[in-house]
Amino acid sequence: TLSLSGVPAGGSPSLDGKVRVGFVQFSGIPTNVLPNGNIDAAQTTPAQTGASGRLTGSKAELESELDWQETNYMQGGTYIASALDTAADMFKASPADGRKKVLLI
Question: Average pLDDT, stretch 86-103?
Fold first, then answer.
């Protein structure tokens, strides 16, 4: 069980030991081959959906994120490089709280 902060995406994070979560889907059909040969197949939720691809401590936003990811499941190979880049961008775009971790499921 995760102890969510309750703070929605874009809100000021609390440093009380609770967490914010974001989802990046990394299994999928190669949608874009980058000049360096990497495959760009990661996706987060679009704007106005759940947390809009940002970290959140809101249960309602997370449920919306999961619903969208399930509906838009890409099915295919595993292209993790671009997903890790997307996760790093998610950390950069969210308010800093000093604790950054990536969990692959």
Answer: 75
